[in-house]
Amino acid sequence: MHTSLSHRARIALLALGLSGCGDAGTGNARVHFNAQVGGIAEGGSNTVTNDQGWAVTLTEARVAFGPLYLNTITPLEARRGPLERLSDFVISPAWAHGETHLASGRIAAQVTAQVVIDARAPTLVSIPGGGDGINLDVESAEVWYYNSTAEGMNGAAIRVRGEATRAGVTVPFRGALVIDAGITGPQLTLDQARRVRGIPAALTVRDGGTLTVRISTQRWFDGADFSELAAQRSEGSADPVTFGLSDNVGRAFLNNVRRARDVFAVQFTD
Question: Does a structural domain hold residue 22?
Answer without folding.
Answer: no
